[in-house]
Amino acid sequence: MKKKTTLAVSERVFREVYDSPASLPGRYRWLTRDIDVRQIEELLGMPSKTIGAPLWVSGDRRTCPKCRREINWLDIVSSALEQVHSREVIARVILGEQKFVNTEAPRAIAGLKCFQCKTPVKNLRSFKCHNWAYAKPALLNVLKEMESKVRVR
Question: Long-range contacts of range 37-45, CB-CB < 8 Å, 24 or more positions apart?
Protein backbone atom coordinates (compact mmCIF):
# COMPACT_ATOMS: atom_id res chain seq x y z
CA MET A 1 0.00 0.00 0.00
CA LYS A 2 1.37 3.38 -1.02
CA LYS A 3 1.98 5.87 1.79
CA LYS A 4 -0.36 8.87 1.66
CA THR A 5 1.40 12.20 1.90
CA THR A 6 1.53 15.85 0.94
CA LEU A 7 4.78 16.99 -0.66
CA ALA A 8 6.48 20.35 -0.97
CA VAL A 9 7.10 20.97 -4.66
CA SER A 10 8.73 23.53 -6.94
CA GLU A 11 6.72 26.29 -8.58
CA ARG A 12 7.07 24.51 -11.96
CA VAL A 13 5.66 21.21 -10.64
CA PHE A 14 2.87 23.01 -8.81
CA ARG A 15 1.82 24.82 -11.99
CA GLU A 16 1.86 21.60 -14.02
CA VAL A 17 -0.20 19.64 -11.50
CA TYR A 18 -2.52 22.16 -9.89
CA ASP A 19 -2.75 25.34 -11.89
CA SER A 20 -6.12 24.39 -13.33
CA PRO A 21 -9.06 23.31 -11.17
CA ALA A 22 -9.83 20.86 -13.98
CA SER A 23 -6.78 18.88 -12.86
CA LEU A 24 -8.41 18.02 -9.53
CA PRO A 25 -9.69 14.43 -9.24
CA GLY A 26 -13.32 13.56 -8.61
CA ARG A 27 -16.66 14.24 -10.17
CA TYR A 28 -17.04 17.79 -8.75
CA ARG A 29 -14.73 20.76 -8.14
CA TRP A 30 -15.78 23.76 -6.05
CA LEU A 31 -14.55 26.71 -4.02
CA THR A 32 -14.85 27.01 -0.27
CA ARG A 33 -17.61 29.50 0.56
CA ASP A 34 -16.48 32.87 1.93
CA ILE A 35 -18.36 32.37 5.21
CA ASP A 36 -16.40 29.15 5.77
CA VAL A 37 -13.09 30.85 4.88
CA ARG A 38 -13.83 33.42 7.60
CA GLN A 39 -14.52 30.53 10.04
CA ILE A 40 -11.13 29.00 9.08
CA GLU A 41 -9.45 32.30 9.93
CA GLU A 42 -11.20 32.28 13.29
CA LEU A 43 -10.11 28.69 14.02
CA LEU A 44 -6.54 29.59 13.15
CA GLY A 45 -6.59 32.85 15.13
CA MET A 46 -6.05 35.01 12.04
CA PRO A 47 -7.50 38.45 11.43
CA SER A 48 -10.59 38.44 9.22
CA LYS A 49 -9.90 38.68 5.47
CA THR A 50 -6.34 37.29 5.85
CA ILE A 51 -7.08 34.47 3.40
CA GLY A 52 -7.81 35.92 0.00
CA ALA A 53 -6.78 33.10 -2.31
CA PRO A 54 -9.39 30.63 -3.55
CA LEU A 55 -9.50 27.39 -1.55
CA TRP A 56 -10.45 24.60 -3.98
CA VAL A 57 -11.73 21.13 -3.17
CA SER A 58 -12.83 18.22 -5.31
CA GLY A 59 -14.64 14.97 -4.78
CA ASP A 60 -17.30 12.59 -5.90
CA ARG A 61 -19.92 14.26 -3.71
CA ARG A 62 -20.12 17.85 -2.41
CA THR A 63 -22.04 17.41 0.84
CA CYS A 64 -21.84 15.62 4.16
CA PRO A 65 -23.77 12.34 3.98
CA LYS A 66 -25.54 13.11 7.28
CA CYS A 67 -26.22 16.86 7.65
CA ARG A 68 -25.90 17.81 3.94
CA ARG A 69 -23.54 20.71 4.70
CA GLU A 70 -21.18 21.44 1.78
CA ILE A 71 -17.76 19.95 2.58
CA ASN A 72 -14.74 22.22 2.01
CA TRP A 73 -11.50 23.53 3.50
CA LEU A 74 -13.24 24.25 6.82
CA ASP A 75 -13.65 20.49 7.31
CA ILE A 76 -10.04 19.88 6.24
CA VAL A 77 -8.65 22.50 8.61
CA SER A 78 -10.79 21.52 11.61
CA SER A 79 -9.97 17.82 11.12
CA ALA A 80 -6.26 18.58 10.73
CA LEU A 81 -6.24 20.69 13.90
CA GLU A 82 -7.83 17.84 15.87
CA GLN A 83 -5.54 15.12 14.54
CA VAL A 84 -2.34 16.17 12.83
CA HIS A 85 -1.23 19.76 12.34
CA SER A 86 -0.67 22.91 14.36
CA ARG A 87 -2.35 26.18 13.47
CA GLU A 88 1.01 27.56 12.31
CA VAL A 89 1.61 24.69 9.88
CA ILE A 90 -1.83 25.15 8.34
CA ALA A 91 -1.31 28.92 8.08
CA ARG A 92 2.00 28.36 6.28
CA VAL A 93 0.34 25.97 3.82
CA ILE A 94 -2.46 28.42 3.03
CA LEU A 95 -0.46 31.67 3.09
CA GLY A 96 3.15 30.72 2.49
CA GLU A 97 5.29 30.80 -0.62
CA GLN A 98 6.00 27.06 -0.63
CA LYS A 99 3.54 25.13 -2.77
CA PHE A 100 2.15 21.75 -1.69
CA VAL A 101 0.56 18.96 -3.67
CA ASN A 102 -1.77 16.46 -2.02
CA THR A 103 -0.93 12.97 -3.31
CA GLU A 104 -3.74 11.00 -1.68
CA ALA A 105 -5.88 11.02 -4.81
CA PRO A 106 -7.60 8.98 -6.08
CA ARG A 107 -8.42 7.80 -2.54
CA ALA A 108 -10.48 9.89 -0.16
CA ILE A 109 -8.65 12.13 2.31
CA ALA A 110 -8.08 10.12 5.48
CA GLY A 111 -9.48 11.24 8.84
CA LEU A 112 -11.75 13.92 7.43
CA LYS A 113 -14.85 14.78 9.46
CA CYS A 114 -17.69 17.19 8.86
CA PHE A 115 -17.12 20.42 10.78
CA GLN A 116 -20.80 20.65 11.72
CA CYS A 117 -21.83 17.12 12.72
CA LYS A 118 -18.45 15.29 12.96
CA THR A 119 -19.59 12.53 10.56
CA PRO A 120 -16.64 10.91 8.72
CA VAL A 121 -16.41 12.19 5.15
CA LYS A 122 -15.09 9.73 2.60
CA ASN A 123 -15.88 11.54 -0.64
CA LEU A 124 -13.41 14.44 -0.70
CA ARG A 125 -10.49 13.58 -2.96
CA SER A 126 -8.23 16.61 -3.23
CA PHE A 127 -7.66 20.15 -2.08
CA LYS A 128 -5.49 23.06 -3.13
CA CYS A 129 -5.04 26.74 -2.66
CA HIS A 130 -3.48 29.35 -4.88
CA ASN A 131 -1.49 31.28 -2.30
CA TRP A 132 -0.39 33.87 -4.83
CA ALA A 133 2.82 35.63 -3.81
CA TYR A 134 1.82 36.19 -0.22
CA ALA A 135 4.75 38.28 1.01
CA LYS A 136 6.96 36.62 3.60
CA PRO A 137 6.91 39.62 5.99
CA ALA A 138 3.12 39.67 5.82
CA LEU A 139 2.99 35.94 6.64
CA LEU A 140 5.29 36.49 9.62
CA ASN A 141 3.02 39.28 10.86
CA VAL A 142 -0.02 37.00 10.62
CA LEU A 143 1.80 34.22 12.50
CA LYS A 144 2.84 36.68 15.24
CA GLU A 145 -0.74 37.90 15.58
CA MET A 146 -2.01 34.29 15.74
CA GLU A 147 0.52 33.56 18.48
CA SER A 148 -0.48 36.62 20.51
CA LYS A 149 -4.15 35.59 20.40
CA VAL A 150 -3.24 32.17 21.81
CA ARG A 151 -1.40 33.79 24.74
CA VAL A 152 -4.35 36.08 25.54
CA ARG A 153 -6.89 33.23 25.71
Answer: 37/73, 37/74, 39/74, 39/115, 40/73, 40/74, 40/77, 40/94, 43/74, 43/77, 43/78, 43/81, 43/87, 44/77, 44/87, 44/90, 44/91, 44/146, 45/87, 45/145, 45/146, 45/147, 45/149, 45/150
